[in-house]
Prior knowledge:
The complex is a heterodimer.
Chain A: E1 3-8, H1 16-29, E2 34-38, H2 46-49, H3 60-65, H4 70-73, E3 75-76, E4 83-86, H5 99-112, E5 115-119, H6 126-133, E6 137-142, H7 146-161, E7 168-174, H8 176-181, H9 187-194, E8 197-203, H10 206-214, H11 225-237, H12 253-260
Parallel strand pairs in A: 1-5, 1-6, 2-4, 2-5, 6-7, 7-8
Antiparallel strand pairs in A: 3-4
Chain B: E1 7-11, E2 14-18, H1 25-38, H2 40-43, E3 47-53, H3 59-73, E4 76-82, H4 103-110, E5 119-122, E6 131-134, E7 137-141, E8 149-152, E9 156-162, E10 165-168, E11 178-183, E12 187-190, E13 193-196, E14 209-214, E15 217-222, H5 223-226
Parallel strand pairs in B: 2-3, 3-4, 5-7, 6-8, 7-9, 8-10, 9-11, 10-12
Antiparallel strand pairs in B: 1-2, 11-14, 12-13, 14-15
Helix pairs in contact in B: 1-3
Amino acid sequence: MGEVIVITSGKGGVGKTTTTANLGTGLALQGKKTVLIDTDIGLRNLDVVMGLENRIVYDLVDVVEGTCRVKQALIKDKRFDGLYLLPAAQTRDKNAVSPAQMEKLCAELKEEFDFVLIDCPAGIEQGFKNAIAGADKAYVVTTPEVSAVRDADRIIGLLEANDIRNPKLIVNRLRPDMVRRGDMMTIDDILDILAIDLLGVIPDDENIIISTNRGEPAVADSKSQAGLAYRNITRRILGEEIPFIDLAARHSLFTRMKKLFGFKPA
Amino acid sequence: MEEKTIIFKGSTEGLAIIIPESYTADQVMTEVGEKIQAAARFFKGAHLNVTYRGILLTPEEETKLFSILDHYSGAIIGSLHVAAAAVVAEPAEGPAGRKPAAGPSLRRFFTKGQDESDCKFVRSTLRGGTRIQYEGSVVVIGDVNPGAEVIATGNVIVLGLLRGMVHAGSGGSREAFIAALKLKPTQLRIADLIARSPNDPDTTGAFPEIASVREGIIEVNPLYERL
Lengths: 266, 227
Protein backbone atom coordinates (compact mmCIF):
# COMPACT_ATOMS: atom_id res chain seq x y z
CA MET A 1 0.00 0.00 0.00
CA GLY A 2 1.48 3.29 -1.11
CA GLU A 3 1.47 6.80 0.23
CA VAL A 4 -0.53 9.75 -1.03
CA ILE A 5 1.41 13.02 -0.72
CA VAL A 6 -0.03 16.39 -1.65
CA ILE A 7 2.38 19.13 -2.72
CA THR A 8 0.89 22.49 -1.88
CA SER A 9 1.83 26.08 -1.09
CA GLY A 10 -1.08 28.48 -0.98
CA LYS A 11 0.73 31.04 -3.08
CA GLY A 12 1.08 30.55 -6.80
CA GLY A 13 4.33 30.41 -8.69
CA VAL A 14 6.53 29.09 -5.89
CA GLY A 15 7.27 25.81 -7.64
CA LYS A 16 4.62 23.24 -6.71
CA THR A 17 4.41 21.79 -10.19
CA THR A 18 8.18 21.77 -10.71
CA THR A 19 8.61 20.09 -7.34
CA THR A 20 5.94 17.48 -8.09
CA ALA A 21 7.55 16.68 -11.43
CA ASN A 22 11.04 16.41 -9.99
CA LEU A 23 10.16 14.43 -6.88
CA GLY A 24 8.02 12.07 -8.92
CA THR A 25 10.79 11.52 -11.41
CA GLY A 26 13.30 11.17 -8.58
CA LEU A 27 11.20 8.51 -6.85
CA ALA A 28 10.78 6.63 -10.13
CA LEU A 29 14.56 6.75 -10.65
CA GLN A 30 14.91 5.15 -7.22
CA GLY A 31 12.75 2.30 -8.44
CA LYS A 32 9.46 3.36 -6.85
CA LYS A 33 6.26 3.04 -8.81
CA THR A 34 4.92 6.57 -8.81
CA VAL A 35 1.89 8.38 -10.19
CA LEU A 36 1.54 12.16 -10.44
CA ILE A 37 -1.95 13.68 -10.31
CA ASP A 38 -2.48 17.20 -11.60
CA THR A 39 -5.48 18.66 -9.72
CA ASP A 40 -5.14 22.13 -11.20
CA ILE A 41 -8.19 21.67 -13.39
CA GLY A 42 -8.53 24.42 -15.97
CA LEU A 43 -4.90 25.55 -15.57
CA ARG A 44 -3.03 22.33 -16.02
CA ASN A 45 0.76 22.54 -16.23
CA LEU A 46 2.22 19.33 -14.94
CA ASP A 47 1.84 17.60 -18.29
CA VAL A 48 3.83 20.40 -19.95
CA VAL A 49 6.58 20.34 -17.34
CA MET A 50 6.79 16.57 -17.74
CA GLY A 51 6.82 16.89 -21.51
CA LEU A 52 3.79 14.62 -21.85
CA GLU A 53 1.24 17.14 -23.10
CA ASN A 54 0.83 15.60 -26.53
CA ARG A 55 -0.03 12.19 -25.13
CA ILE A 56 -3.14 13.18 -23.19
CA VAL A 57 -6.27 11.33 -24.22
CA TYR A 58 -8.31 11.13 -21.02
CA ASP A 59 -7.98 13.23 -17.92
CA LEU A 60 -8.87 13.44 -14.21
CA VAL A 61 -12.41 14.63 -14.85
CA ASP A 62 -13.01 11.78 -17.33
CA VAL A 63 -11.91 9.35 -14.63
CA VAL A 64 -14.10 10.69 -11.81
CA GLU A 65 -17.08 11.02 -14.14
CA GLY A 66 -16.61 7.45 -15.29
CA THR A 67 -16.01 8.27 -18.95
CA CYS A 68 -12.94 6.04 -18.82
CA ARG A 69 -11.13 3.70 -16.46
CA VAL A 70 -8.23 5.00 -14.38
CA LYS A 71 -5.76 2.86 -16.32
CA GLN A 72 -6.83 4.44 -19.58
CA ALA A 73 -6.16 7.96 -18.34
CA LEU A 74 -2.72 7.23 -16.89
CA ILE A 75 0.11 8.34 -19.17
CA LYS A 76 3.21 6.21 -18.83
CA ASP A 77 6.44 8.16 -18.99
CA LYS A 78 8.61 6.15 -21.32
CA ARG A 79 11.87 7.77 -20.13
CA PHE A 80 11.47 6.70 -16.52
CA ASP A 81 10.37 3.25 -15.51
CA GLY A 82 7.38 3.17 -13.19
CA LEU A 83 6.37 6.83 -13.64
CA TYR A 84 2.81 7.74 -14.58
CA LEU A 85 0.84 10.96 -14.95
CA LEU A 86 -2.86 11.57 -14.48
CA PRO A 87 -3.39 14.95 -16.15
CA ALA A 88 -6.01 17.55 -15.25
CA ALA A 89 -8.78 18.60 -17.60
CA GLN A 90 -8.19 21.92 -19.31
CA THR A 91 -11.71 22.77 -20.41
CA ARG A 92 -13.43 22.38 -17.06
CA ASP A 93 -13.06 24.04 -13.64
CA LYS A 94 -12.31 22.96 -10.09
CA ASN A 95 -15.96 22.18 -9.32
CA ALA A 96 -15.92 19.32 -11.83
CA VAL A 97 -14.41 17.16 -9.07
CA SER A 98 -15.46 16.69 -5.45
CA PRO A 99 -13.29 15.84 -2.41
CA ALA A 100 -15.17 12.54 -2.00
CA GLN A 101 -14.31 11.56 -5.60
CA MET A 102 -10.66 12.45 -5.03
CA GLU A 103 -10.58 10.37 -1.86
CA LYS A 104 -11.91 7.36 -3.74
CA LEU A 105 -9.45 7.85 -6.59
CA CYS A 106 -6.46 8.18 -4.22
CA ALA A 107 -7.50 5.07 -2.31
CA GLU A 108 -7.66 3.18 -5.58
CA LEU A 109 -4.29 4.43 -6.86
CA LYS A 110 -2.35 3.77 -3.67
CA GLU A 111 -3.26 0.09 -3.91
CA GLU A 112 -1.24 -0.04 -7.09
CA PHE A 113 1.52 2.54 -6.61
CA ASP A 114 4.26 3.16 -4.03
CA PHE A 115 3.77 6.92 -4.23
CA VAL A 116 0.85 9.07 -5.35
CA LEU A 117 1.98 12.70 -5.66
CA ILE A 118 -0.75 15.30 -5.97
CA ASP A 119 0.05 18.63 -7.56
CA CYS A 120 -2.21 21.09 -5.74
CA PRO A 121 -3.46 24.31 -7.35
CA ALA A 122 -2.74 27.69 -5.73
CA GLY A 123 -5.36 29.08 -3.39
CA ILE A 124 -7.43 27.63 -0.59
CA GLU A 125 -10.70 27.05 -2.39
CA GLN A 126 -12.29 24.04 -4.05
CA GLY A 127 -9.14 22.98 -5.89
CA PHE A 128 -7.16 22.89 -2.66
CA LYS A 129 -9.93 20.95 -0.88
CA ASN A 130 -9.97 18.42 -3.70
CA ALA A 131 -6.20 18.05 -3.70
CA ILE A 132 -5.87 17.37 0.03
CA ALA A 133 -8.97 15.16 0.33
CA GLY A 134 -7.21 11.86 -0.25
CA ALA A 135 -3.75 12.80 1.02
CA ASP A 136 -1.93 11.03 3.86
CA LYS A 137 0.91 13.53 3.99
CA ALA A 138 1.67 17.01 2.75
CA TYR A 139 4.76 18.81 1.54
CA VAL A 140 4.51 22.58 1.68
CA VAL A 141 6.57 24.50 -0.86
CA THR A 142 7.58 28.07 -0.17
CA THR A 143 10.13 30.58 -1.42
CA PRO A 144 12.14 32.82 0.91
CA GLU A 145 9.70 35.67 0.53
CA VAL A 146 7.49 37.08 3.26
CA SER A 147 4.32 36.74 1.20
CA ALA A 148 4.99 33.10 0.30
CA VAL A 149 5.78 32.26 3.92
CA ARG A 150 2.53 33.93 5.05
CA ASP A 151 0.55 31.77 2.67
CA ALA A 152 2.48 28.67 3.68
CA ASP A 153 1.58 29.38 7.30
CA ARG A 154 -2.10 29.61 6.41
CA ILE A 155 -1.89 26.41 4.41
CA ILE A 156 -0.23 24.53 7.28
CA GLY A 157 -3.08 25.66 9.53
CA LEU A 158 -5.64 24.41 7.02
CA LEU A 159 -3.83 21.10 6.59
CA GLU A 160 -3.80 20.57 10.34
CA ALA A 161 -7.49 21.47 10.51
CA ASN A 162 -8.07 18.73 7.93
CA ASP A 163 -6.12 16.18 9.98
CA ILE A 164 -3.03 16.14 7.81
CA ARG A 165 -0.48 16.34 10.59
CA ASN A 166 3.19 17.27 10.45
CA PRO A 167 3.50 18.62 6.94
CA LYS A 168 7.08 18.97 5.74
CA LEU A 169 8.66 22.05 4.26
CA ILE A 170 10.50 22.53 0.98
CA VAL A 171 12.13 25.92 0.52
CA ASN A 172 12.48 26.65 -3.17
CA ARG A 173 14.52 29.16 -5.10
CA LEU A 174 16.93 30.17 -2.36
CA ARG A 175 19.70 32.54 -3.44
CA PRO A 176 22.73 31.96 -1.24
CA ASP A 177 24.40 35.20 -2.34
CA MET A 178 21.37 37.25 -1.30
CA VAL A 179 21.11 35.41 2.00
CA ARG A 180 24.75 36.17 2.68
CA ARG A 181 24.17 39.84 1.96
CA GLY A 182 21.22 39.80 4.35
CA ASP A 183 18.77 40.64 1.57
CA MET A 184 16.84 37.38 1.72
CA MET A 185 15.15 35.45 4.52
CA THR A 186 17.33 32.68 5.85
CA ILE A 187 16.13 29.13 6.31
CA ASP A 188 16.16 29.77 10.05
CA ASP A 189 13.93 32.81 9.62
CA ILE A 190 11.42 30.69 7.72
CA LEU A 191 11.54 27.76 10.13
CA ASP A 192 11.13 30.18 13.01
CA ILE A 193 7.76 31.28 11.66
CA LEU A 194 6.44 28.02 10.25
CA ALA A 195 7.79 25.68 12.94
CA ILE A 196 7.63 22.51 10.84
CA ASP A 197 10.25 19.99 9.72
CA LEU A 198 12.45 20.94 6.80
CA LEU A 199 12.57 18.38 4.00
CA GLY A 200 14.90 20.22 1.67
CA VAL A 201 16.17 23.45 0.17
CA ILE A 202 16.33 24.03 -3.57
CA PRO A 203 18.72 26.73 -4.76
CA ASP A 204 17.62 29.15 -7.45
CA ASP A 205 18.88 27.58 -10.67
CA GLU A 206 18.56 28.66 -14.30
CA ASN A 207 18.62 25.01 -15.31
CA ILE A 208 15.14 24.60 -13.83
CA ILE A 209 13.68 27.08 -16.30
CA ILE A 210 15.46 25.36 -19.18
CA SER A 211 14.42 21.91 -18.07
CA THR A 212 10.77 22.77 -17.38
CA ASN A 213 10.53 24.42 -20.79
CA ARG A 214 11.96 21.32 -22.40
CA GLY A 215 9.78 18.98 -20.37
CA GLU A 216 12.76 17.18 -18.85
CA PRO A 217 12.78 17.16 -15.06
CA ALA A 218 16.04 18.59 -13.67
CA VAL A 219 16.35 15.78 -11.17
CA ALA A 220 17.65 13.58 -13.98
CA ASP A 221 20.34 16.14 -14.86
CA SER A 222 23.52 15.35 -12.96
CA LYS A 223 24.99 18.83 -13.54
CA SER A 224 22.10 20.85 -12.11
CA GLN A 225 22.37 22.19 -8.52
CA ALA A 226 18.60 22.13 -8.15
CA GLY A 227 18.56 18.62 -9.56
CA LEU A 228 20.96 17.52 -6.84
CA ALA A 229 18.76 19.12 -4.19
CA TYR A 230 15.74 17.27 -5.57
CA ARG A 231 17.67 13.99 -5.59
CA ASN A 232 18.55 14.58 -1.94
CA ILE A 233 14.91 15.24 -1.06
CA THR A 234 13.90 12.06 -2.86
CA ARG A 235 16.33 10.07 -0.77
CA ARG A 236 15.10 11.73 2.42
CA ILE A 237 11.54 10.76 1.49
CA LEU A 238 12.78 7.16 1.24
CA GLY A 239 14.14 7.41 4.76
CA GLU A 240 17.84 8.10 4.18
CA GLU A 241 19.62 10.62 6.37
CA ILE A 242 21.08 13.11 3.92
CA PRO A 243 22.74 16.20 5.38
CA PHE A 244 21.59 19.56 4.03
CA ILE A 245 23.96 21.17 1.55
CA ASP A 246 25.35 24.30 3.12
CA LEU A 247 24.00 26.56 0.39
CA ALA A 248 24.52 29.75 2.27
CA ALA A 249 28.02 28.89 3.48
CA ARG A 250 26.87 31.31 6.09
CA HIS A 251 30.08 31.89 7.97
CA SER A 252 32.30 34.68 6.89
CA LEU A 253 36.07 34.27 7.03
CA PHE A 254 36.12 36.07 10.33
CA THR A 255 33.60 33.82 12.10
CA ARG A 256 35.35 30.79 10.65
CA MET A 257 38.59 31.99 12.17
CA LYS A 258 36.87 32.58 15.48
CA LYS A 259 35.58 29.03 15.26
CA LEU A 260 39.10 27.81 14.57
CA PHE A 261 40.35 29.53 17.66
CA GLY A 262 37.59 28.04 19.73
CA PHE A 263 35.30 31.03 20.11
CA LYS A 264 31.60 30.53 19.70
CA PRO A 265 30.50 31.96 16.35
CA ALA A 266 28.21 34.93 16.74
CA MET B 1 -31.33 38.25 51.90
CA GLU B 2 -32.33 41.72 50.91
CA GLU B 3 -29.58 44.22 50.31
CA LYS B 4 -29.45 46.89 52.97
CA THR B 5 -27.17 49.34 51.19
CA ILE B 6 -26.52 50.55 47.70
CA ILE B 7 -24.33 48.21 45.70
CA PHE B 8 -22.17 48.99 42.71
CA LYS B 9 -21.55 46.29 40.19
CA GLY B 10 -19.22 46.54 37.24
CA SER B 11 -19.80 44.49 34.13
CA THR B 12 -18.76 44.56 30.51
CA GLU B 13 -21.83 46.68 29.86
CA GLY B 14 -20.80 49.30 32.37
CA LEU B 15 -21.77 50.10 35.94
CA ALA B 16 -24.94 48.93 37.63
CA ILE B 17 -26.25 50.51 40.79
CA ILE B 18 -28.50 48.29 42.86
CA ILE B 19 -30.69 50.24 45.20
CA PRO B 20 -32.63 48.72 48.11
CA GLU B 21 -36.34 49.12 47.60
CA SER B 22 -36.80 50.88 50.90
CA TYR B 23 -34.59 53.83 49.94
CA THR B 24 -35.92 57.28 49.21
CA ALA B 25 -34.53 59.36 46.38
CA ASP B 26 -32.61 61.57 48.82
CA GLN B 27 -31.01 58.61 50.53
CA VAL B 28 -29.95 57.39 47.10
CA MET B 29 -28.31 60.69 46.24
CA THR B 30 -26.37 60.92 49.50
CA GLU B 31 -25.19 57.36 49.54
CA VAL B 32 -24.25 57.23 45.85
CA GLY B 33 -22.34 60.48 46.37
CA GLU B 34 -20.40 59.06 49.31
CA LYS B 35 -19.64 55.74 47.67
CA ILE B 36 -18.55 57.27 44.44
CA GLN B 37 -16.25 59.71 46.18
CA ALA B 38 -14.65 56.88 48.13
CA ALA B 39 -14.01 54.95 44.94
CA ALA B 40 -13.18 57.91 42.72
CA ARG B 41 -9.70 56.66 42.07
CA PHE B 42 -11.13 53.44 40.69
CA PHE B 43 -13.49 55.16 38.32
CA LYS B 44 -11.10 57.84 37.10
CA GLY B 45 -10.85 58.09 33.35
CA ALA B 46 -13.29 55.26 32.67
CA HIS B 47 -16.15 55.45 30.21
CA LEU B 48 -19.28 54.28 31.96
CA ASN B 49 -22.79 53.52 30.97
CA VAL B 50 -24.75 53.36 34.18
CA THR B 51 -27.93 51.47 34.91
CA TYR B 52 -29.77 51.36 38.19
CA ARG B 53 -32.42 49.15 39.61
CA GLY B 54 -34.42 48.55 42.76
CA ILE B 55 -36.47 51.72 42.66
CA LEU B 56 -37.65 53.95 39.89
CA LEU B 57 -36.48 57.55 39.87
CA THR B 58 -38.27 60.47 38.32
CA PRO B 59 -36.57 62.19 35.36
CA GLU B 60 -35.52 65.06 37.65
CA GLU B 61 -33.97 62.66 40.15
CA GLU B 62 -32.24 60.86 37.31
CA THR B 63 -30.67 64.09 36.12
CA LYS B 64 -29.51 64.81 39.66
CA LEU B 65 -27.99 61.33 40.05
CA PHE B 66 -26.28 61.73 36.68
CA SER B 67 -24.64 64.97 37.76
CA ILE B 68 -23.54 63.43 41.08
CA LEU B 69 -21.92 60.53 39.21
CA ASP B 70 -20.40 62.80 36.65
CA HIS B 71 -19.06 65.19 39.24
CA TYR B 72 -17.63 62.83 41.85
CA SER B 73 -16.48 59.80 39.89
CA GLY B 74 -14.07 61.47 37.48
CA ALA B 75 -15.41 59.04 34.89
CA ILE B 76 -17.04 59.96 31.65
CA ILE B 77 -20.65 58.94 32.06
CA GLY B 78 -22.17 57.89 28.78
CA SER B 79 -25.72 57.34 29.89
CA LEU B 80 -27.90 56.69 32.91
CA HIS B 81 -31.13 54.77 32.78
CA VAL B 82 -33.13 52.25 34.69
CA ALA B 83 -32.21 48.63 34.08
CA ALA B 84 -34.76 46.81 31.98
CA ALA B 85 -37.39 45.04 34.07
CA ALA B 86 -35.66 46.10 37.23
CA VAL B 87 -38.41 48.05 38.93
CA VAL B 88 -40.42 45.07 40.02
CA ALA B 89 -37.46 42.78 40.17
CA GLU B 90 -35.64 41.34 43.07
CA PRO B 91 -37.18 41.94 46.46
CA ALA B 92 -40.63 40.69 45.50
CA GLU B 93 -39.59 37.07 45.77
CA GLY B 94 -40.02 34.89 48.82
CA PRO B 95 -37.83 34.72 51.90
CA ALA B 96 -34.61 34.11 50.01
CA GLY B 97 -35.28 37.32 48.14
CA ARG B 98 -32.66 36.70 45.47
CA LYS B 99 -33.42 35.50 42.03
CA PRO B 100 -31.69 32.31 40.96
CA ALA B 101 -28.62 32.82 38.80
CA ALA B 102 -29.70 32.86 35.18
CA GLY B 103 -26.94 31.58 32.93
CA PRO B 104 -23.74 33.16 31.69
CA SER B 105 -25.05 36.69 31.22
CA LEU B 106 -25.63 37.02 34.95
CA ARG B 107 -22.24 35.51 35.73
CA ARG B 108 -20.63 38.01 33.43
CA PHE B 109 -22.54 40.73 35.25
CA PHE B 110 -20.79 39.83 38.47
CA THR B 111 -17.31 39.76 36.94
CA LYS B 112 -15.27 42.48 38.51
CA GLY B 113 -13.38 44.56 35.98
CA GLN B 114 -10.72 42.49 34.30
CA ASP B 115 -9.27 40.86 37.39
CA GLU B 116 -11.54 37.89 37.22
CA SER B 117 -13.05 36.36 34.14
CA ASP B 118 -13.50 33.11 32.29
CA CYS B 119 -10.38 31.97 30.55
CA LYS B 120 -9.73 30.06 27.36
CA PHE B 121 -6.47 28.18 26.94
CA VAL B 122 -5.13 27.56 23.45
CA ARG B 123 -2.34 25.03 23.34
CA SER B 124 -1.09 25.37 19.79
CA THR B 125 0.46 27.86 17.45
CA LEU B 126 -2.18 30.06 15.86
CA ARG B 127 -1.42 30.24 12.18
CA GLY B 128 -2.51 32.84 9.66
CA GLY B 129 -6.25 32.85 9.10
CA THR B 130 -7.13 31.46 12.54
CA ARG B 131 -9.42 33.55 14.68
CA ILE B 132 -10.03 33.00 18.37
CA GLN B 133 -12.95 34.95 19.77
CA TYR B 134 -13.89 34.60 23.41
CA GLU B 135 -15.89 36.27 26.14
CA GLY B 136 -13.26 36.36 28.82
CA SER B 137 -9.49 36.08 28.78
CA VAL B 138 -7.33 34.02 26.42
CA VAL B 139 -4.01 32.35 27.12
CA VAL B 140 -2.12 31.07 24.08
CA ILE B 141 0.64 28.57 24.72
CA GLY B 142 2.43 28.86 21.40
CA ASP B 143 2.98 31.55 18.81
CA VAL B 144 0.41 33.82 17.22
CA ASN B 145 1.51 34.12 13.60
CA PRO B 146 0.83 36.99 11.19
CA GLY B 147 -2.73 36.88 9.92
CA ALA B 148 -4.06 35.19 13.07
CA GLU B 149 -6.47 37.09 15.32
CA VAL B 150 -7.24 36.79 19.00
CA ILE B 151 -10.23 38.74 20.19
CA ALA B 152 -11.13 38.62 23.88
CA THR B 153 -13.30 40.71 26.15
CA GLY B 154 -10.68 40.15 28.86
CA ASN B 155 -6.90 39.95 28.86
CA VAL B 156 -4.69 38.10 26.40
CA ILE B 157 -1.47 36.36 27.34
CA VAL B 158 0.75 34.74 24.73
CA LEU B 159 3.40 32.35 25.97
CA GLY B 160 5.29 32.55 22.74
CA LEU B 161 5.94 34.98 19.95
CA LEU B 162 3.07 37.32 19.13
CA ARG B 163 3.23 38.40 15.47
CA GLY B 164 -0.46 38.61 14.67
CA MET B 165 -3.30 40.82 15.83
CA VAL B 166 -4.69 40.78 19.35
CA HIS B 167 -7.70 42.68 20.58
CA ALA B 168 -8.09 42.65 24.37
CA GLY B 169 -11.02 44.21 26.19
CA SER B 170 -13.06 43.92 23.02
CA GLY B 171 -16.20 44.61 25.06
CA GLY B 172 -14.89 48.11 25.72
CA SER B 173 -12.77 47.62 28.82
CA ARG B 174 -9.61 49.67 28.78
CA GLU B 175 -8.42 47.85 31.89
CA ALA B 176 -7.52 44.87 29.73
CA PHE B 177 -3.89 44.06 28.97
CA ILE B 178 -1.92 42.04 26.45
CA ALA B 179 1.27 40.27 27.51
CA ALA B 180 3.63 38.15 25.42
CA LEU B 181 7.03 36.53 25.79
CA LYS B 182 7.93 38.27 22.57
CA LEU B 183 5.73 41.06 21.38
CA LYS B 184 6.08 41.75 17.65
CA PRO B 185 2.44 42.21 16.67
CA THR B 186 1.11 43.55 13.40
CA GLN B 187 -1.41 45.40 15.52
CA LEU B 188 -2.61 45.59 19.11
CA ARG B 189 -6.06 46.69 20.14
CA ILE B 190 -7.33 47.37 23.61
CA ALA B 191 -10.99 48.36 23.87
CA ASP B 192 -11.44 51.14 21.29
CA LEU B 193 -7.72 51.90 20.92
CA ILE B 194 -5.43 50.65 18.18
CA ALA B 195 -1.64 50.59 18.15
CA ARG B 196 0.77 49.17 15.61
CA SER B 197 4.38 48.09 15.87
CA PRO B 198 7.12 50.56 15.04
CA ASN B 199 8.37 50.16 11.49
CA ASP B 200 11.83 49.22 12.64
CA PRO B 201 11.42 45.51 13.30
CA ASP B 202 14.56 45.12 15.38
CA THR B 203 13.37 47.23 18.27
CA THR B 204 10.58 44.89 19.32
CA GLY B 205 10.32 41.42 20.70
CA ALA B 206 13.61 41.21 22.57
CA PHE B 207 12.06 40.43 25.97
CA PRO B 208 8.63 39.79 27.52
CA GLU B 209 6.42 42.83 27.32
CA ILE B 210 2.99 43.96 28.41
CA ALA B 211 0.69 46.37 26.65
CA SER B 212 -1.90 48.31 28.60
CA VAL B 213 -3.75 51.58 28.37
CA ARG B 214 -2.29 54.58 30.12
CA GLU B 215 -3.85 57.97 29.74
CA GLY B 216 -5.77 57.02 26.68
CA ILE B 217 -2.99 55.42 24.66
CA ILE B 218 -1.68 51.89 24.43
CA GLU B 219 1.66 51.69 26.14
CA VAL B 220 4.09 48.78 25.91
CA ASN B 221 6.45 48.14 28.80
CA PRO B 222 8.94 45.43 29.69
CA LEU B 223 7.18 42.82 31.77
CA TYR B 224 9.90 42.56 34.39
CA GLU B 225 9.82 46.23 35.22
CA ARG B 226 6.37 45.73 36.67
CA LEU B 227 7.10 42.64 38.72
